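Lab meeting notes turned into a lecture example. A postdoc, R.K., suggested we walk through two folding results consecutively so the class can see how the record format repeats. The first protein's sequence and structure tokens come next.
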Amino acid sequence: MRTGTTKLAIVGAGAVGSTMAYAALMRGAARNVALLDIDRKKVDAEVLDLRHGLEFMPQASVEGSDDVAVCADADVVMVTAGAKQRPGQSRLDLAEATIGLMQKILPGLLEVAPNAVYVMVTNPVDIVTYASLKISGLPPHQMMGSGTVLDSSRLRHLVAQRCGVAVQNVHAYIAGEHGDSEIPLWSSATIGGVPLSEWNPLPGRLPLDAEARDVIARDVVRSAYTIIEGKGATNYAIGLAGSRIAEAILGDEDRVMPVSTLLDDFYGIDDVCLSVPSLVGRQGSIERFEVPLSDSEYDGLKTSAETVRAAARRFGY
């Protein structure tokens, strides 16, 4: 495990970036947290608010600026900044604008933090991660997307809620796109070591049958839309998920997480960034696990890959 002072840089001090900084400080993920945002007044205010709470957190420092130099020598760079969706813009329009933003900000980040592990959080995360790899020229292990870490947490919550167990005892992954074509990997899911296919409902609990699983899968996809409709953005859960990814990297944990990485002959899938269970540690993401897939899961993953690849090609990547 790596020892010494660690630095986490977060690009974007909006709802997601500032919440991620708060979560990272509360969890003690890094000794130094830096916020970068083009809005100097906003980033200064967020830093001041965070500093006022440092007494109640694990020992750390926090700084912020509109100058990329604030990210110098970062060990991990989380990119939450993205183009804002305007009325009438499609999701693909948003992708094009966000890729344009990455073309502007990545060169400066790489100049001051060339050895950092980069984690793209901004959406559509799989397309942005793939384009950012091409723009940056970084080796694939050094750049990943937050992928379906949050989606998998949503899945585990819903399964735990239905089955009446602690969410920490549910082990299940969402794979593929962080979006509408994502798929739950039911065939490898377990509760307390019991495969879901063999799970018998606890007294007073409903069965986790095929119909229930379909409802849960749909709810995972729809949940972000529900939150955005109610309060305008998702920030708490993605802030926690992002800080947990950073913690796994900074702590060299070799933790299995469904981050979005460049696939190379993963069940025959190549040249696309998708989420599959991957080993996350100080070097980034260097291994992917070929978890057993049912025929329908394999077909779903292939379809998800085609969806993301087609969108990336539309923008020349």
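The second example is placed directly after the first for contrast:
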Amino acid sequence: MPEQPPTPNPYGTPSTDGPEPLRPSQGFVNKIARTLLRTPGLSRLVGKRLLTLHVVGRKSGKTYDVPVAYTEHDGILLIGTALRPWVKNLRGAAPVTASLGGSPRTFDPVVYTDEDDVLRLYAIVAADNHYNAKLNGIGFGPDGTPNKADIYQTWQQGGVVIALTPH
């Protein structure tokens, strides 16, 4: 069966080409970020925007330490990202641990994939963290708000938002 073309963007023409692809150096950058996030003193500085998510593989049982940018909003942590393989390991009611410049804490994750939730929550993430927005192909309008056509495009290309609620 031929692949269906993407649905036209109901919010207009995006201002970007979409999320940036992972760079070949991303593994090295993640290794540095994990080291900085484990270093006393530095972890509190670096951890103002980054946390280490400790994700257990659903098949392997292996723990993966994934550094990700986050936004704190209404007592929960929001992570805007593409639907990467590690995201699939955040399943059902299984809690997850994350380190935010200190000892790991336990959270209940929810992965939002539907259009309305992703558009609403990604707007919060993008407004708080412009660098994360840039990496995820989200520009800003003249009034400084995230471009809704860009957020829609990011969602169409596999963007999700993960909400972590403290246990």
